[in-house]
Amino acid sequence: MKFARLGEFGSEIPVVIDGDRHLDLRPLTSDVDGRFLADDPTGRTSAAIAEGLLPELEGAADLRIGAPIARPSAVICIGQNYAAHARESGAEPPTVPIIFLKTPNTVVGPNDAVTMPRGSEKTDWEVELGVVIGRRTAYLDSPEEAGAHIAGYVVANDVSERTFQMEISGGQWSKGKIAHGFNPTGPWLVTADEVDAQNLGLRSFVNGEPRQDSNTSDMIFDVRAIVHHLSQFVTLEPGDLILTGTPQGVAFGGRFPYLKAGDVVDIEIDGLGAQRQEFVAWEASR
Fold first, then answer.
1. C-alpha torsion sign, points 190, 191, 193, 196
2. pLDDT digit string (tens) for 83-137?
3. Helix (H, G, I), strand (E, B) or coil at 205
4. Does residue 134 contact residue 178 with C-beta atoms inside 8 Å?
5. What is the pTM of this model?
């Protein structure tokens, strides 16, 4: 099942995609948020469709696509989770997951323009598989328990400013990760029952030229291991978002130039959809 949110920023309408129809979820929920995701969203939505309770949303094709989840309480990211990306970054593959945070206001629509931060010289792209939590999660006893706590999966671009991240970071990566809009997400939330999370092709392009091309099977720590590990340190709430790392092929590796104003980035993951952002220069009036 695919959930989405359509409309202007801050006023998105929750929908379920049923074939070529976008069905309005508002008779069932006010948003695709933690409360909805924690309460059997697939079962309840399937029943509502069968009963004819969800009208088709008129003009859906003309509406902006928002992030498919409402503002999460936490965005937690895993660094260097593909061995080849670790090596292109000049590091050995980690033996335990590397964790950093993004702020909730980084989460924007999949096709929204991204404003490069004031003073940015090294803005970079990172296609990533995003995991959306569906049940309150703390102190899982094993990775096998993690699956029951996952609502679904999304495409995400972990946009990064490498000078802020690495050179003036003070040892913390988040400075280069938390600019407003630095986490385009979507277009859909695809429920976990429809996704083989460890066998997904993921790719990125800059101005139509290939950059990243890998598969989630190459992760060092798989999705369940990540959720289990995080649960030992943080309580994950329904609707929270986890970014699981990016493969090789980013500008930080040295083979490609960093982004400049006017560049267009496309990213895609098999079965989860595609997104496109134009990168624009910061202006004082923004």
1. positive
2. 877 777 777 889 999 999 999 999 999 999 999 999 999 999 999 999 999 999 9
3. strand
4. no
5. 0.96
